[in-house]
Design brief:
0% strand; mainly alpha; 46 helices; extended; 632 residues
Length: 632
Amino acid sequence: MPIKLYVVAMTLTLVVGWGLTARGDASLAERAKTARLLAHRHAAVAVLSDESLLSDVARSGEFWDAREAAAKKLTDPATLADVAMTASDAEVRSIALEKLDDPETLQEIAALAKSLHTRRAAVEKLESRQQPVSQPVFVEIARQGQEWPLRLWAVAKLDERHREVSQEVLAELARSGEDWSTRLWAAGALDAPHRAAVDAAMADLATHAKDAAVRRAAAGWTDGKLTTVSDVLAEIATHSKNLAVCLAAVEHVTDQAVLTGLVKKHLFSEVQRAAVEKIDDPATLIGFVKTNTSAEIRLRAVRKVDDQTLLAETVRDRGNFWLVRLEAIGRLTDPSLLADFARNDRDVGVRKAATEKVTDQAVLAHLAMHDENLSVRCAAAEHLTDQSLLLDVIRNHNEWSVLSRAVKRLTDPASIAHVAQTHDDAKLREEAVKRLTDQATLLDLATNGTHRDARLAAAERVTDQAALVEFAKKHDDWAMRRAALTNLTNQAMLSEIARTEKNYEVRKAAVAALTDQSLLLEFTRAHESPAIRREAVQKLTTPAVLANFLRTDKDSGVRMAALDNLTDQTVLSEVARNDPDSGIRKAAVRKLTDQTLLSAIVQSDRAPDVRRAATLRLEELTWRQQQAPPPR
């Protein structure tokens, strides 16, 4: 049983068995906290509504799923705030905090929550709502945090009034940070008066760091050759032979000259890629596009360029990697440049990419009719919106790929109708008719259209019942009469057409459209054609009526149609034993469930294929019994 259904079942059991008395609620809370089965825990939480009991489950439940489910049911702001500040489960605190919006409550959590991470989450929620946060919150997190990223985050939030606090925290991290990058970064961020306090730590790092580049950078900081954190990190990123160390250093490098050098010369391609993502100067980036040997570096560089002139130069340079040229086209926004590349570039891919961004309708129409490449012509047609230019393309073009795209862009009913009425291509006329929704236009086309296929397609989309009756009863073309039946809903009229229409296909369509059971029955009894009776019987649903046809109709096809919709075992048994047609007996046998009768048929039926069908049905029923779960 799916777990959700199981939980619902358990919930109903608990509601009926325990009720919602105060004593019952306490029992439910205990069950939610301690039950070994997940479904029992969730069912208990689902029944609970008392905020204090839900809060107790959220705080002290043995299982995380019950704690979280209880927290999600809490609605009282005071209870939610208490859970957010004091719960031991981080996810429960997060759920409670997420449900709180009151600025004063969030300020209280930011100041008093036991978890510094919860405080940070409260601060970020306040900041997202443009609410100010008091500086003492950041001071406390900076001083008391156990994790250096959290402490650095708090330091970054401190204003000038608390600069001494930030310097105190940075000095502590420089002396005892978890890793070399923390220590170096913190040391580099210290003001000059505070640097002496960490000289011993830097000297220790210069002596004992495992990575030679880190040792050299720390030594340079200690002896004054490297005076800023950027100098230190650049030294490490440039000279370390350890990829992880290099990437950690590059993450904090901002000097554009250093980053450019890393892209050009660094040993690791991963470092080159990380560095190019941090470069902002367009000229430097385009230089990489032109000269760097790595296709990935060239692509990353061009993706950061917005200058239209530089991008155009990149596209024009046919020496560039083709993907780079396409990427540059994708970043172009200047209409004149895009139009120029769409019309004149020798590369099909560049012309197509530019065409997909062109908005000038005259340019698109020209490309749709005259570009030498089919994919460009199709792209231009797909982006045309000017209705008169689309008609020009449709009149003057002969390629289906372009024409079909142009027709799909037509929105003006008169233009679509014109194509449906006049175009030489039958397939395109049909496509145009499919685009029409205006009933007056469709009716006019169905009545007066020049081409038979367009008239038929239009008639199939007409919904005006009076017009459809007129078509169905009086039109000279049998195909038009049949098309009119597509949307005709008048059951009496459909029955009349099914009885009186001379054309077999029209009669068949009328029967297929009939849904009224009494009219279907009346028609089926009266009609002479077995084929038409079969069509009608297939739409009947009343078991007694179907059984009557099975017993009395002389045509085996009609009886088979009746059998298809029948499940009554008594009637099926009668048919399986007595129908003169072995094919019908065989079909009835396949639907039987009476194993005694099936055994008798295996022994006595005169047709081998019926006996074989009964044997197979017995085996199937026996197998299903063996697979069924034991009764509870």
